[in-house]
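Translate sequence into structure tokens.
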Amino acid sequence: MKSLTTSEGRVIATLLAAVAGNESARLRVSGVPRTTYQAVRRRAFKSGWLYERFVPSPEAVGATGVSIELVQPFAERWANLVRVWRRDPDTVVLQASPETLLRVTYLRDSKVSPADLAQSRAGMSNRRWWEVRSSSDAPNIPIYFDFEAAWSRRIQQPTTVSYPMGLPKSPVGVGRPPQRDIDELVSKPFAVEPDEGSVLRARHLYLARRQRKILELGWVAHRVLPSLPDLPPYRGGRAERFVFLTGSLLAGKSLSELLGRLAHARQITPFLAASGGGRVLLGMLAPSPVRLATAGASAVELVAESLKEIEVVRESVDTFLPVIDHRYDRLTDRASDAPPK
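Result follows.
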């Protein structure tokens, strides 16, 4: 596979970021000629290197929070667990390898209690199972599938535009927009097959005024995500593995402190970071310009200063593949039945 050029790398970094303003602002941030920017943008979406999603806040779809689960089931339980999770309409992300599953679920009031959930897990006989839950009252997913920093490090771009971007939070004291407008916006990437025109027009910039208002208020966020198996290498190198790290926070420690120390001391920039119930879950890419595994003992010590009971799971980007790929439109069928927040 042919490596990406410097210009292609810059344009991809710009598309992964949340650049305020119109497409001219993105062009200025990219620092490449207009025709180059337009050609690379078109190629990136048509070739499947990048794809767009509209991510709702939990309140926007009548949910009470979000659950992120990392599971390694026994082989005989794997197929059944995938089948059950695929049927759950509140599952919006499900990535799977023969060893590991990662699931993101928008939680409803009808979900089982933590005690019942623990009992059901015990019956499933999974080898390893970790979960982080974030509620609307105490949201703590400060980085939610934000790959801008990881890509910027790879192309040796010293700064980022919008990293870190977390799970959207609904505005305080602002009434929820009509549910049909939220549902239509969240479902937009799946309404029609993308064509040459839609790619060139950058669909999120050509929304109805009422939909743009939903984005501006923060009920829903526009995001661009990479398809890592399809993304060509940059100067011969590419992300080869997902690295998930989980552990329990030590007394007096916080996720924000851990992220700050990792970024400033070792330039480690996770694409996923969440905490809840005293547990932390981080998602990173490897190899990167500075790797957790090879950055020296000090990087490991930084983590150990904040976490205990540390576990690490590694999966190849070529085999840890999406079963449900950020399908937030799955939430829309039942969102209108939820009472207003």
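Note: The CA atoms of residues 170 and 219 lie 5 Å apart.
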